[in-house]
Specification:
Layout lengths: L12 H4 L12 H7 L48 E5 H6 L5 H6 L34 E5 L2 E2 L24 E8 L3 H4 L6 E7 L6 E10 L6 E12 L2 E12 L2 E2 L17 E8 L4 E2 L5 H4 L3 H4 L2 E5 L2 E6 L8 E3 L1 E16 L2 E16 L5 E3 L8 E3 L5 E7 L2 H4 L7 E19 L2 E21 L3 H6 L2 E4 L5 E3 L3 H4 L5 H6 L1 E26 L2 E19 L18 E17 L4 E14 L2 E17 L2 E12 L3 H5 L3 E4 L6 H7 L16 E4 L8 E15 L2 E18 L2 H12 L8 H9 E3 L11 E5 L2 E22 L3 E18 L20 E11 L2 E10 L2 E2 L6 E2 L2 E11 L4 E8 L27 E10 L2
Parallel strand pairs: 2-5, 18-23, 31-35
Antiparallel strand pairs: 1-4, 2-3, 4-5, 6-7, 6-44, 7-8, 8-15, 9-14, 10-11, 10-13, 10-19, 12-13, 15-16, 16-20, 17-19, 18-19, 20-21, 21-24, 22-23, 24-25, 25-26, 26-27, 27-28, 28-29, 29-32, 30-31, 32-33, 33-36, 34-35, 36-37, 37-38, 38-39, 39-42, 40-41, 42-43, 43-44
Helix pairs in contact: 13-14, 14-15
Length: about 950
């Protein structure tokens, strides 16, 4: 996992002033400042070596109005009842972030495990997600300039909708604001865990060119990026444009010594050529046949003796085809154009466009005889029921990348509208937005003719309906020619799209005058339409491809209406109250769902250097459209583990013969139009203290609870629960056990072949009873300057999850999972950073400590883990700078001694090792 430090945490005046540019809602920063009382100019955010401005007093001195995520009201206070974390654009590169998703995943608030684009075998390997407070990607709302964007067209983990943060360019980003906690009363559905608002630049002077190139020390992952940003002002016109081109090569498992062979830790080599007696499950001895295929997989194929007989195997079969980092080519563009009609009215258009091509590989072509049927056949030459298996090697197919999967993405987010003044103290904005995401997939597949190629012509079926072949083993135990492979390879095509269209109108300003100041208010009305379409290849399940099932295309739309309002009431000079309420109504699948949410907060400043705050909010999430509209889907998992059979055999999971069976078990999944909306509540209690210009600190307690959680049960979790229930570890009569056992359908114990094996797993979505989590954040910043050694800034932040509870059904146990192997997220994260500026040089160290996680065997723990990034930059002159960034400074790769291949905690940490890149920036004009 890349390690990053969170830069500015909005804990005190200096941090919050990082938000000095407005998000564009409801008016520009410049216009907001004109409406505010005269005030001193804002200083740099906390990560800057420049000393922070003096702490606020309770005098009449006003500050420039700013808009901060979490409210639509332009505040004259820097801190509110909820903390907001801010990452500035310059910190994305300086602190070792590869991209925007790296920066967000490095936040301490992001304690949830997610399957990103480098996770490997996922449903969304071309996308990244964020999981604030560990509540899942679909509970964090992602905005660009305060506006909703289109979801990624393919659902996360095959079930939930989310926003892809992998394709957001950094070229025009001004800052990223992260609000953790319920915010549905301001933004509507999805904002249960929090909101991420990516704010793009509104003004750029001159033209800036940024070039970056680098790679990994251990090989692979070469990357390059070019950015061009520019802006202009001409009379009433003002515009900004930025473009970004980037590319990176994949990193293959074979490029990392420790996982270039799956058998180095004593595991049995993977089966490359295997011939089993289907009735007994034992391999039929291949004799000297393994010698003829020994040159495949880099000369690693050999005869392997196992408990079930001899087969031809190789430890390089999986590593030869596995990419631990995807390859990518992308082009992104973003810009805005504003026309000032007069001092109280401006027209605007904003746009963001992207194109990307992503490739990855998780396994090479493999084949099992009659896989679409019974999985075995009657060999008329031997009279036996046999099962043949075969993996194809890179040497046979012309290189591993010939079996790469490919994703081609095209996106746009466009907004047009007008904003201006309704009165000297009220402003408004009306806007129409359109967001669209198109994803085309290409998946290489073996054609149905592979059975004939390896078994010979089918002779019919026997009395039991079993396919009959006169199969000659010499057809199996031989390398294929490239021409033979070309005759049995094809590709399926998929087309996935999603869209989000919205009309909105808002107004904000001063309403009444209270003892503590003006009562500020905001109103918003929205109407929108959202939809998606997942169109599968019609050839699937039609006998064109080997072992595929028919997959239904899925479409769905929903309409939304919303009306909301906010109040910010300075009751006294020291006490401010906030209140927000919103009503959302969704129409989909012939039904209407409505929700009214509210948010109430208090800010108390007993001293000019101290803020005490409290907040309570309700929130909701409408059921994901994929859950609602999906039809029955059948398929199979790439690999599965039969925990019950391992327990029956008394074999530990890491060496069990039923671990990581490939291909895995079949599954069946249905959507449901009867799912209820989720309801959430969040609480916050905190303090911010800034006794001097150079120091500030904050402490915030938080809690989030969800009822009627919509979830698609994990097949692996179901199999674990089934095993625990059948073996007496859990109460077999409990609701969860009864549900788990009913979801796993097994062959009869006396079946002719595969007795007791899993035949199918049912993974339908449900409304779980409830989920809750609570913990605390603590952060601090200290800056100092010396006459000879320059300026320094030290900052740190720590998040700890104290409790996480999940109750699937009422009556189930509701124990705290933190500290147990069932808790699959980070229990705590700590970020720290040191910036040193001396002369024309700026140096930075960014460190992150991740808390312990369970080992793969669930019998122990991988302890806390540190990693460090470093950078140095030289400002050659006022227009040109040169920098060097080193990621993972100490070249550490996290290993799990209990893990099966690839031997590291996939998803939690990355096996890249040390990476570095050189960056050059030059500005023309301005």
């Amino acid at each position: 996992m890349k390690l990053h430090v969170e830069v500015a945490q909005a804990t005190g005046w200096a941090a919050a002033l990082a938000a000095a540019l407005a998000t564009g809602w409801p008016l520009s920063a410049a216009r907001a400042a004109e409406l505010a009382a005269p005030a001193p100019s804002a200083s740099a955010p906390t990560s800057s070596p420049t000393p922070a401005p003096a702490a606020p007093s309770t005098s009449d001195t006003a500050l420039p109005a700013v808009v901060v995520t979490g409210s639509r009201i332009s505040r004259i206070q820097n801190e509110g009842p909820s903390p907001v974390t801010i990452i500035r654009s310059e910190d994305l590169d300086r602190l070792g972030y590869r991209n925007v998703s790296d920066a967000l995943n490095g936040l301490t608030e992001n304690t949830g495990f997610t399957q990103g684009e480098d996770f490997g075998n996922t449903f969304t390997p071309a996308a990244n997600a964020i999981s604030l407070r560990g509540l899942g990607p679909n509970h964090t709302l992602v905005l660009v300039n305060g506006r909703r964007v289109a979801d990624y067209p393919s659902p996360y983990n095959g079930s939930t909708n989310f926003v892809n943060i992998a394709n957001i360019p950094s070229a025009l980003i001004d800052r990223i604001e992260v609000l953790s906690g319920g915010a549905s009363s301001v933004y509507g559905s999805d904002a249960i865990a929090g909101v991420v608002n990516i704010v793009l630049k509104r003004k750029v002077e001159g033209v800036t060119v940024n070039l970056r190139a680098g790679g990994t020390e251990r090989g692979g992952g070469e990357n390059a990026r070019a950015q061009i940003t520019g802006g202009f002002e001409s009379g009433a016109w003002q515009g900004v444009l930025g473009v970004e081109f980037s590319g990176r090569e994949p990193i293959w498992s074979r490029q990392r010594d420790f996982m270039s062979d799956s058998s180095v830790n004593g595991a049995a080599p993977s089966v490359v050529f295997g011939r089993r007696n289907a009735a007994t499950g034992r391999y039929l001895d291949p004799g000297a046949a393994c010698e003829a295929v020994q040159p495949l997989f880099d000369g690693s194929v050999k005869a392997v003796s196992s408990r079930t007989g001899v087969y031809c195997g190789s430890g390089r079969a999986s590593p030869s085809f596995w990419t631990t980092q995807t390859g990518n080519r992308s082009a992104q563009a973003a810009g805005s154009l504003t026309y000032t009609v007069h001092s109280g009215l401006e027209l605007f258009v904003e746009g963001q466009f992207g194109w990307a091509r992503t490739e990855n590989n998780t396994r090479g072509p493999s084949w099992t005889s009659e896989a679409a049927g019974k999985g075995y056949f009657r060999n008329s030459t031997t009279g036996l029921l046999e099962t043949w298996t075969r993996r194809l090697s890179p040497e046979e197919i012309g290189g591993a990348d010939r079996f790469n999967r490919r994703w081609q993405d095209a996106t746009h987010n466009v907004a047009v509208g007008a904003r201006g003044e309704l009165s000297p103290t009220w402003t408004y904005e009306v806007a129409a937005t359109s967001a669209y995401y198109l994803n085309r997939t290409t998946t290489p597949r073996l054609l149905a003719g592979v059975d004939t190629l390896l078994l010979g012509p089918k002779q019919g079926v026997d009395a039991d309906g079993v396919a009959v072949y006169a199969a000659d083993p010499q057809r199996l135990f031989r390398p294929l020619t490239t021409a033979e492979y070309d005759s049995i390879i094809g590709a399926s095509k998929g087309r996935n799209s999603s869209w989000n269209q919205q009309l909105s109108a808002s107004a904000s300003g001063n309403w009444l005058t209270l003892p503590g100041g003006p009562l500020r208010a905001a109103l918003v009305a929205e109407a929108g339409k959202q939809g998606f379409a997942n169109l599968t290849d019609p050839r699937l399940g039609q006998g064109v491809f080997y072992n595929t099932t028919e997959s239904a295309s899925i479409r769905g739309t929903r309409d939304r209406l919303a009306l909301g309002g906010e109040l910010n009431a300075p009751i006294t000079r020291q006490l401010t109250a906030t209140l927000a309420a919103r009503h959302d109504r969704y129409h989909f699948a012939g039904r209407n769902d409505a929700s009214t949410t509210y948010n109430a907060g208090l800010e108390f400043r007993p001293l000019s250097s101290l803020l005490l705050r409290a907040q309570h909010a309700t929130s909701f999430r409408a059921p994901d459209m994929n859950y609602i509209f999906s039809q029955q889907t059948r398929g199979y998992y790439s690999s599965s583990t039969d925990y019950y059979r391992c327990a029956q055999a008394g074999q530990p999971i890491d060496t069990c013969e039923f671990t990581d069976l490939s291909p895995g078990f079949n599954f069946s999944r249905n959507g449901s139009k009867d799912l209820k909306a989720e309801r959430g509540r969040s609480w916050g209690l905190g303090a911010v203290w800034q006794p001097s210009q150079s120091f500030d600190a904050s402490l915030d307690l938080w809690k989030i609870a969800i009822r009627d959680l919509v979830t698609d049960l994990s097949a692996d979790r179901v199999l674990r629960d089934e095993a625990d229930c059948r073996t007496g570890i859990k109460d077999i009569n409990s609701p969860s056990c009864q549900d788990a056992i009913g979801r796993v359908r097994r062959n009869p114990a006396d079946a002719l072949v595969r007795p007791g094996e899993v035949a199918e797993i049912l993974v339908n979505p449900i409304n779980a009873s409830k989920e809750s989590t609570w913990g605390f954040d603590i952060g601090a910043r200290y800056s100092w300057a010396t006459q000879d050694w320059g300026r320094f800034v030290l900052n740190a932040k720590y998040t700890e999850v104290r409790s996480y509870r999940y109750q699937q059904f009422a009556g189930d146990s509701n124990n705290n999972m933190v500290g147990t192997p069932d808790f699959g997220d980070w229990p705590n994260k700590f970020n720290a950073g040191l910036t040193w500026q001396v002369g024309a040089w700026t140096h930075a160290l960014a460190a992150q400590r991740n808390g312990k996680i369970a080992r793969e065997d669930r019998e122990g723990w991988l302890g806390p883990y540190w990693n460090v990034n470093a950078s140095t930059a030289w400002q050659v002159d006022r227009r040109t700078s040169v920098g060097l960034t080193v990621n993972n400074l100490f070249d550490k790769v996290r290993r799990d001694p209990s893990a099966t291949w690839p031997f590291y905690p996939v998803g939690y940490y990355l096996p890249y090792g040390r990476q570095a890149w050189i960056e050059v920036t030059h500005r023309f004009g301005g």
